[in-house]
C-alpha cells in the first residue's frame, strides 16, 4: 500500500498534479517513519529478560514475519544488552568471591540459539514476503498493460466506446484492485491509462448521463475523503494520522474524475487538509530531533563528569566510596535520558561506559594494593611492638644511667619508625596502637622513676624550649630584615636542647610548630611582595623580544598555578572522612591551596606589569 501511495498519480490537471507532489511528505520523513518507529524501539528497550525478546520474535514469526526492520534491530540490541548485563553480574559475583576477575569465564548463553533461530526465521519470512510482493508487482504490471491495450481497442470509434461501456467499467474496477506495481513504471503507467480513459470518455457522446452520474458519485467520494483528511488534522497521534493520510491519498487517486467546475475546488480542499497533517508530522520529527540533540548534550555532560571522576585519584577509602556513589548517580541519571541521534548513539554510550569501567577498574586496583599495604604495615608495626616489649622486658636489668639512655634512644627510634609506617586494618588498629603506646609509656615511666636527676633535666629542657617559643612569638610580632637568620638560630637551639617530660612534649611541639608556621607564612608573603617589585623594576628596563618572552613566561606560570589549584580542589572534594588523620590531611591540602592562591595573585600582578610595559612600548613605537 505504501508503494502505491508514493508512485501512482491521481487523475488531475497538470497544475493539480504539481500541487499534489508539493504536499507529499519528504522521502526521508517516510523512511524515518517506516524504519524507526519510536514505540517499538522503546518497547524493546524496556524488556527485562531475554525470554521476552525471544517471545516477541516468536510472535512475529507466527504472524508471518510482519515487522519493521527497526524493531528487529531494536530486539537484537535489547537481547545483547541483557546478555552483557548478565555477564557483568556474573563478573561482579566472581570478583566479590575471588577478589579479582582473573580466570573468570562467563556462563554459556543457552538462549542464544533460540534467539538466532527465531531471528533468522523472521528474516526468511520477510525476504519471502518481499519476493512475493515483487512477483505480485510484475503480475499487476502485465495485467495493467493488457487493460490499457483493451481500453485502446474500445476507443477505435464512438459507437464501439458506447457498446463497451460496461466492459470499460469492469476493467476500470479491476484496474483499481491491481496494486501495487513497480515504482519506476507507476507514473508512466497511470498517465497512459488516464489518457486512454479520457479518450474513451470523450467518445461517449451518447452516455453523458452516465458520465454525469459518475461525476456526482466521484464528487461525493472525494468530499468524504476531504472531510476525513480534515479530521486527521486534529489527531494527537500525528504519526498514525500521517499513515492514514497516505491511505486517503491512495483512495483519492483511485477515485475517478469529477465535473470540471469542481475539480480545482475539491483538490484545493483536499490539499489544504493534507498540508496541515504533513506539517504536524514534520514538526513532530523536528521535535524528536531537537530532543535527541538535547539528550546528546546531557549525555555528553555526564560523560565529562564520569571522565573527571575516573581521572581523579582519591587517597583513601572514603574518597573512593564518594566517587563510587557519584558514578552510580550518573548511571541512574543516564537511564532517565532518552535516545540521542542515531549516528552517535552507540559512540556516546561507549564513551560513558568506558569512563565508568575505567573508574571501577582503578577502584579495584586501589583496594587490592591497599589490602597488600595494610598487611605489610600490620607486619611492620607488630614487629615494632614486639621490639618495644623486648626493651621494656630488659628494663629492670638496667643498672647504669647510660643504659637507660641507650634504651630510650631505641624506643624513640621505634616511635619514629611507627609514624613512618602507614595504616593497618581497622579491626586491629586500636588494639595494636594501645599495645605499642602502652609499652612506650611504661618504659618512660620506669625511666623517670629510675632517675630523679633526669626528671629535673627534662624540666629544665622544657623551660628552655618554652623560652625559645616565647622568643619566636616576639620575633613573629616584629619581623625585621634579619628575621630569617634569627629563626634559624632559634630552631638550631631547639634541636640542640634535650628531652622534655614525655607527657608534655606533644603540646609543646604543637606550640613550636604553630609559631614557626606563622613566621614562615609572613616571610613567604614578604618575599612574594619583594619578588613582584623586583619583577616590575626588571620589566621596566626590558624591551623588545625579551619583554615579550617575560610576559609569555608569566602567563604560562599563571596557567600552571591555576591548574595546580584546580587539581588540589578536585582531590579535596573526594575527602569526606571525619577521622583525625583525614581532618589533618584536609587541613594540609587547604593550607596548600591557600598558599598556591597567594602565589597566583603575585604572578597575576607580574602579568599585569608586563602587559602594561608592552602597551607602553607599543604606544611609544
Could you tell me how far the N terminus lies from the C terminus, measured between alpha carbons in angstroms?
Answer: 80 Å
Discrete helix count: 22
Give the strand content: under 5%
**Overall pLDDT:** 77
| Structure summary, number of beta strands | 0
Structural class: mainly alpha
Q: Roughly how many Å is the radius of gyration? A: 45 Å
Note the overall shape: elongated
What is the H-and-E element order?
HHHHHHHHHHHHHHHHHHHHHH
Helix content: over 70%
Mind summarizing the main beta sheet? none
**Regions with pLDDT < 50 over 5+ consecutive residues?**
1-42
Q: Please, could you describe this protein's structure?
A:
- The protein is an all-alpha fold and 621 residues long.
- The protein has helices at 2-7, 14-23, 27-35, 38-46, 50-62, 69-98, 112-154, 158-163, 165-177, 183-202, 208-232, 238-254, 260-311, 317-336, 342-393, 401-420, 426-450, 452-478, 483-496, 505-540, 544-572, 580-620.
- The relative contact order is 0.05.
- Helix 13 (260-311) runs antiparallel to helix 14 and helix 18 runs parallel beside helix 20.
- The protein contains 22 helices and no strands.
- It is 83% helix and 0% strand.
Amino acid at each position: 500500500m505504501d508503494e502505491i501511495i508514493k508512485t501512482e498519480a491521481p487523475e488531475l490537471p497538470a497544475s493539480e498534479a504539481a500541487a499534489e507532489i508539493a504536499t507529499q511528505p519528504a522521502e526521508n520523513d517516510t523512511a524515518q517513519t517506516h524504519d524507526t518507529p519510536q514505540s517499538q524501539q522503546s518497547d524493546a528497550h524496556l524488556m527485562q529478560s531475554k525470554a521476552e525478546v525471544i517471545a516477541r520474535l516468536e510472535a512475529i514469526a507466527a504472524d508471518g514475519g510482519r515487522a519493521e526492520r527497526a524493531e528487529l534491530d531494536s530486539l537484537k540490541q535489547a537481547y545483547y544488552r541483557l546478555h552483557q548485563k548478565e555477564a557483568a553480574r556474573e563478573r561482579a559475583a566472581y570478583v566479590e568471591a575471588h577478589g579479582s576477575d582473573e580466570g573468570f569465564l562467563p556462563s554459556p548463553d543457552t538462549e542464544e540459539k533460540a534467539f538466532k533461530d527465531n531471528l533468522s526465521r523472521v528474516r526468511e519470512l520477510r525476504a519471502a514476503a518481499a519476493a512475493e510482493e515483487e512477483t505480485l508487482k510484475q503480475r499487476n504490471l502485465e495485467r495493467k498493460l493488457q487493460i490499457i491495450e483493451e481500453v485502446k481497442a474500445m476507443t477505435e470509434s464512438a459507437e464501439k466506446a458506447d457498446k463497451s461501456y460496461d466492459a470499460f467499467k469492469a476493467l476500470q474496477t479491476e484496474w483499481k484492485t491491481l496494486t501495487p506495481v513497480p515504482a519506476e513504471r507507476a507514473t508512466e503507467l497511470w498517465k497512459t491509462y488516464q489518457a486512454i480513459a479520457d479518450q474513451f470518455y470523450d467518445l461517449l457522446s451518447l452516455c453523458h448521463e452516465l458520465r454525469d452520474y459518475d461525476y456526482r458519485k466521484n464528487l461525493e467520494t472525494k468530499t468524504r475523503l476531504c472531510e476525513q483528511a480534515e479530521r486527521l488534522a486534529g489527531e494527537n497521534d500525528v504519526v498514525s494520522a500521517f499513515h492514514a493520510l497516505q491511505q486517503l491519498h491512495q483512495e483519492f487517486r483511485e477515485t475517478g474524475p469529477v465535473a470540471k467546475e469542481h475539480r480545482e475546488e475539491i483538490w484545493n480542499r483536499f490539499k489544504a487538509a493534507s498540508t496541515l497533517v504533513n506539517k504536524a508530522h514534520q514538526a513532530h520529527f523536528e521535535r524528536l530531533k531537537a530532543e535527541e540533540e538535547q539528550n546528546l548534550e546531557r549525555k555528553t555532560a555526564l560523560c565529562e563528569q564520569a571522565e573527571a571522576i575516573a581521572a581523579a585519584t582519591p587517597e583513601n577509602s572514603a574518597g573512593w566510596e564518594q566517587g563510587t556513589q557519584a558514578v552510580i548517580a550518573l548511571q541512574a541519571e543516564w537511564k532517565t535520558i532518552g535516545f540521542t541521534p542515531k549516528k552517535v548513539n552507540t559512540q556516546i554510550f561507549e564513551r560513558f561506559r568506558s569512563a565508568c569501567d575505567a573508574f571501577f577498574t582503578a577502584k579495584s586496583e586501589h583496594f587490592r594494593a591497599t589490602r597488600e599495604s595494610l598487611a605489610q604495615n600490620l607486619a611492620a608495626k607488630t614487629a615494632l611492638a614486639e621490639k618495644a616489649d623486648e626493651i621494656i622486658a630488659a628494663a629492670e636489668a638496667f643498672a647504669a644511667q647510660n643504659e637507660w639512655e641507650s634504651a630510650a634512644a631505641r624506643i624513640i627510634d621505634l616511635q619514629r619508625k611507627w609514624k613512618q609506617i602507614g595504616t593497618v586494618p581497622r579491626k586491629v588498629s586500636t588494639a595494636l596502637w594501645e599495645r605499642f603506646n602502652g609499652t612506650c609509656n611504661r618504659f618512660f615511666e620506669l625511666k623517670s622513676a629510675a632517675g630523679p636527676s633526669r626528671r629535673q633535666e627534662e624540666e629544665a629542657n622544657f623551660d628552655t624550649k618554652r623560652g625559645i617559643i616565647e622568643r619566636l612569638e616576639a620575633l613573629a610580632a616584629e619581623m625585621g630584615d634579619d628575621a630569617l637568620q634569627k629563626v634559624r638560630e632559634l630552631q638550631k637551639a631547639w634541636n640542640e636542647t634535650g628531652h622534655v617530660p614525655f607527657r608534655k612534649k606533644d603540646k609543646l611541639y604543637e606550640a613550636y610548630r604553630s609559631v614557626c608556621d606563622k613566621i614562615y607564612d609572613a616571610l613567604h608573603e614578604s618575599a612574594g611582595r619583594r619578588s613582584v617589585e623586583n619583577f616590575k623594576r626588571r620589566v621596566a628596563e626590558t624591551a623588545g623580544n625579551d619583554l615579550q618572552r617575560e610576559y609569555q613566561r608569566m602567563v604560562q606560570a599563571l596557567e600552571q598555578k591555576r591548574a595546580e589549584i584546580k587539581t588540589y580542589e578536585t582531590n579535596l572534594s573526594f575527602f569526606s572522612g571525619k577521622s583525625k588523620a583525614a581532618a589533618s590531611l584536609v587541613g594540609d591540602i587547604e593550607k596548600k591551596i591557600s598558599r598556591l592562591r597567594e602565589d597566583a595573585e603575585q604572578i597575576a600582578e607580574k602579568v599585569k606589569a608586563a602587559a602594561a610595559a608592552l602597551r607602553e612600548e607599543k604606544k611609544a613605537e
